[in-house]
């Protein structure tokens, strides 16, 4: 799963990395939680661009803005078969940029969990596979998204049994293509990222409080 992540790259760097025509104004965020607006990269028939949308997928049929589901993650194994996600998976795929993400490992000596920060080892942006949706509730348009998760790789295994789907750069064009693609091709993308290209370290439990911010949240602790 993925419940928190960080993004501290400048907009110009992200625009160049993803080859977008525009990126909204950004500021460094080290504790991004579900329910907040996050950056997604998506492509229409005309342009590839960055947009800010709600992290927490809102189904097209939702009617009540005061009781929206918190569908921040969707399992790769079920995304093609569940009606709530099927349409978005076929034609409304996106990339959710990050610097890294957090996961919590149960500690054997007590009831607490130790947070870890996980990122790629090359310093490049982490590209989560996602889906997005547009919903109108009481005349108000809500754009939302969810991160797709898959089974863990060898690096993540000791920490958690799930991880976000991370896309390598060579897959960006095909993944963002707004045209329908065969399920067999789409499922090719939904696999664990290569362990040797990732790194992880323990961080402070200050990340547990969603209002905490600052670069210290991703610094390693002994």
């Amino acid at each position: 799963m993925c419940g928190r992540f960080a993004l501290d790259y400048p907009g110009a760097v992200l625009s160049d990395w993803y080859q977008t025509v525009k990126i909204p104004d950004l500021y460094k965020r080290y504790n991004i939680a579900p329910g907040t607006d996050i950056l997604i990269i998506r492509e229409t028939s005309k342009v590839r661009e960055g947009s800010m949308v709600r992290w927490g997928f809102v189904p097209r049929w939702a009617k009540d803005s005061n009781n929206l589901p918190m569908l921040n993650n969707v399992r790769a194994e079920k995304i093609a078969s569940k009606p709530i996600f099927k349409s978005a998976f076929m034609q409304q795929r996106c990339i959710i940029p990050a610097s890294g993400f957090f996961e919590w490992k149960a500690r054997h000596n007590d009831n607490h969990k130790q947070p870890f920060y996980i990122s790629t080892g090359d310093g490049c942006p982490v590209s989560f596979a996602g889906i997005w949706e547009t919903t109108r509730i009481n005349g108000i348009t809500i754009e939302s998204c969810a991160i797709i998760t898959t089974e863990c790789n060898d690096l993540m295994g000791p920490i958690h049994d799930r991880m976000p789907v991370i896309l390598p750069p060579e897959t960006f064009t095909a993944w963002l293509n707004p045209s329908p693609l065969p399920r067999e091709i789409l499922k090719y993308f939904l696999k664990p990222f290569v362990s040797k290209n990732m790194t992880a370290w323990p961080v402070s439990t200050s990340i547990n409080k969603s209002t905490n911010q600052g670069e210290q949240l991703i610094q390693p602790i002994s």
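The domain at 4-218 is CATH 3.90.1680.10 (hypothetical protein yedk fold). The helical segments are 11-18, 83-91, 172-176, 183-189.
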